[in-house]
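Bumping with the actual sequence this time:
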Amino acid sequence: MEAKVIENYLKTVDQAAFQSLMNHLLYLEGYHFVGAPGSVIGKNKTSKGAPDSFFVDGDKFIFCEYTTRALSSR
């Protein structure tokens, strides 16, 4: 049941909301973000370029790239 609710939500979100969701899920897993250059501050919008987000894990920088795709009609 919960998986279907999540799946239905993910079908409705735009790129910016998806990126924000993924950053938040990583935060909940204990990764604290250093930056999210793929987000536009003050707007629900993404920006071109890479990476979408990055954070420090010990002595390493971890770079995140998020992507969405349109669902094909079935």
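The tokens above came from a reply further down the thread. The mean pLDDT is 78.
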